[in-house]
Design a protein that fits this description.
Layout: H1 2-9, E1 11-14, H2 20-26, E2 28-33, H3 49-60, H4 72-85, E3 92-103, E4 107-121, E5 124-134, H5 144-163, E6 167-176, E7 179-188, E8 196-206, H6 207-227
Parallel strand pairs: 1-4, 2-8, 5-6
Antiparallel strand pairs: 3-4, 4-5, 6-7, 7-8
Length: about 230
């Protein structure tokens, strides 16, 4: 009977419906802005010539156009997903339209994530490392930050169920047209009624003029998980 009661009273949230008050109600939230060089040193990530050429090709399909006037699907195909594909490494792949679901002790999170970079085995995205939100614009547009918080919270839980670290570090970003904002979250107290979530976020980076640092940041995020540096000791 207690099990049935738990199922009935557990709160369920869709990523796309999350707001700041709801996030602050289900987790102990700490937020701060940082400069990107707090994560990445200037010479830490080096692009090879092939990557530079590929990046130039992507940018050549953005520069002649007013990206703010393009619809989301066009921007996604021209600007966002090509960079996500460039950071694939071995079994770490970039997938679009990924369903995520995670249960904490008092609440459940679920929904479709615009893109995930993570460990893929046998055609299944097993462990999501990086989550990406493409912000909607116009009348349907809402602040993408809190949707991303929820998705990062879900990804952290899925990683924790895999390795049981005391805390999980998860990266994320949201895009508006060809502008990217990067986030890093540390989630702890996973089994408590109210988990703790500490968020660092950067300024916006515009792909037309800052594509190289955007790609380096994505590569840095992937490199952290390959090396284990993103994970707590």
């Amino acid at each position: 009977m207690n099990g049935d009661l738990t199922l009935e009273t557990m709160e369920r949230y869709l990523f796309s419906d999350l707001t700041r008050p709801e996030i602050k109600r289900i987790v102990k939230l700490t937020e701060r802005r940082i400069a990107l060089d707090a994560w990445i040193q200037a010479d830490q990530i080096v692009l090879v010539e092939e990557e530079k050429q590929h990046l130039a090709h992507v940018i050549s399909h953005l520069l002649p156009y007013e990206t703010t006037l393009m619809n989301e699907a066009t921007i996604w195909g021209r600007a966002v997903y090509p960079l996500l594909l460039m950071v694939e490494h071995g079994d770490i792949q970039s997938w679009a339209g990924v369903s995520l679901q995670a249960k904490y002790s008092q609440f459940e999170l679920e929904g479709i994530v615009d893109a995930v970079i993570g460990k893929c085995l046998g055609g299944v995205m097993e462990v999501p490392y990086i989550v990406v939100v493409e912000a909607k614009r116009g009348l349907e547009g809402t602040n993408p930050r809190f949707q991303l918080y929820g998705e990062m919270l879900a990804a952290a839980r899925l990683n924790w169920e895999e390795n049981r670290h005391p805390a999980e570090t998860i990266f994320g970003c949201y895009t508006i047209a060809d502008s990217w904002t990067f986030l890093r979250a540390k989630v702890s107290a996973m089994e408590d009624d109210i988990p703790e979530m500490s968020i660092e976020s950067t300024r916006e980076y515009v792909e037309k003029i800052e594509a190289e640092i955007i790609l380096k940041t994505l590569k840095y995020m992937v490199a952290c998980f390959i090396s284990g540096d993103a994970l707590p000791e």
